[in-house]
Each structure stands twice: as C-alpha cells, then as structure tokens.
Amino acid sequence: MTEPSSTAPPGLPFGLRWGIKSSFVEYIRRMPDGQGRLGAGAVPVGSLEVLYPPERGELHTLDDGSIERSWTFRGEVRFSGHFGMLVVRVAAPALTVRDGMAELSVADPSAQEGGERLPLVTLRLDPQPAPDGIELWHGTDVRLTAAGTGLFNDVYPEGEPFESLTVTLPVVPPSGSAMPSSAT
C-alpha cells in the first residue's frame, strides 16, 4: 500500500471516529470492575470516542447502475464488567454505503477469525465540506439492528439510537481502491 498523496494537514487522524453509545460507556465506567480496553490499532479520542484507523476502501457499480462504497477499519474495543458476565467486543468495523444510507458491521464475536460479520447499526452517511485531499463524512440517525441487539445482551431494542460518527479519509485516486495503511 502507498502513502496518501493528499495535501492533508499533518497529524489529521484518518479513520472512523465513533463513541458507540455514550450511556453504555458511562455505565461500564460506573461499575466497580468495569473496563474498556483498546487493541489492534484503535485509539481513544477524547473521553468517549474511539478512532478506528482505515484499512481499505472500495467502490463498486452495481447491476442497477447505482454506486456502492465500502470501507474497512482496524482496531477493537472490549468492554467488560459484572465479574466476566458482561463482555462486548466492537472490532474491525466496516461501512457499506449506498444512496446515502449505510450499514456498519463488526467482526462477529461468535465467528472464527475472518468469518462472518455482524450488522451492528444502520445510519445516514453524508459527505461534508473538507480540506483538499480529504473526504469527510458524517453519520447520523445511527440505529441498532435486530442482529446487533445480541451483542449487547438484548438490553437495547432494535432501533435504539447510538452515537453519531465521523469518517475522515485521504482522497484516493479513482483508479485505486486501497487505503494507505499508514494514514493515521
């Protein structure tokens, strides 16, 4: 993979920035044994958000002529508490976007490495004004999917609002589809 050729300001963190669900994070923090651990490249941003670095992006023209974009990110956050009875892992998020609507999936914690993905939330993803060489997207109306309810032990119902998110990426020339691996 190659370095970005953008004129992005130095130090701008590329990736998916997401607070998952602030009330859940605060709940974990209040537990006597509550923990949140980051790994595989994810880093904390502020007190409630995680930055998942970009891995790759793809652009597809579908049979009906519409465009589908997808991005994968690396990193994970693991929440635990209640003496091991509560474990939630949000790892290797991927976004698929078609006509402004998106689905964010994560590595299914019950599947083998590289196995199936779990559709976690749906959202509206809209491009935002950004400096030259940068793509900026803002995700709103983030809602838990039926499949995602099990990740949170069925505490939250389908359609439960989750935190808005932001995606910041270097512009990739139209002929390429790979994300720079060091764009963090």
Helicity level? under 10%
Rg over C-alpha atoms, rounded to the nearest angstrom: 17 Å
What's the β-strand tally?
Answer: 13
Structural class: mainly beta
- Can you list the strand order of the major beta sheet? 3-4-1-13-12-11-10-9-6-5
Q: Average the pLDDT over all residues and give the rounded result.
A: 82
Low-confidence stretches: 1-10, 175-184
Order of helices and strands: EHEEEEEEEEEEEE
- The end-to-end distance, rounded to whole angstroms, is 14 Å
Number of helices: 1
What spatial form do the alpha-carbon principal axes imply?
Answer: globular
Features of this protein?
single chain; 184 residues; mainly beta; three-stranded antiparallel beta sheet; globular; disordered C terminus
Q: Can you tell me about this structure?
A:
This protein has 184 residues and is mainly β. The protein contains one helix and 13 strands. Strands 3-4-1-13-12-11-10-9-6-5 form a ten-stranded antiparallel sheet, with no helix packed on it. The chain has a three-stranded antiparallel sheet with strand order 2-7-8, with helices on one face. It starts with 14 loop residues before the first strand and ends in a 14-residue tail after the last strand. The relative contact order is 0.23. The model is unreliable at 1-10 and 175-184 (pLDDT under 50).
